[in-house]
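Recap from last week: sequence in, structure out.
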Amino acid sequence: MIELKIDPVAKPRMTRSDKWAHRPVVDRYFAFKDALVLLCKKQKYFLPDKYGVKFYIAMPESWSAWRKIDMKGKPHQQKPDLDNLLKSINDCLKVSDQTIYALEASKYWDDEGRIVFYEIA
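Predicted structure tokens:
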């Protein structure tokens, strides 16, 4: 199991104009990609062809303290979508994601954003 303290970012749908017209969502994704690759290299982690991942999404600052206590650890059922989070992970850490043959994924609310990778049977 490996835990990376980084806010998960979903892969955005990109257009041709993203090569020269910098949209904030695309810039945020590329910053996430660079940071994730760097964290994985530091910890010598390589994404296997069969893995499990849990995304922990940081709760908004605007939420009250009692709501944060109530929601911590509960399933995250809003945007970003789980499949787009997985696309960002596979795009960042796999040269060829066609080799992935099994995975488990889930997303939860937490005090701070992080990504946890684990082995599956």
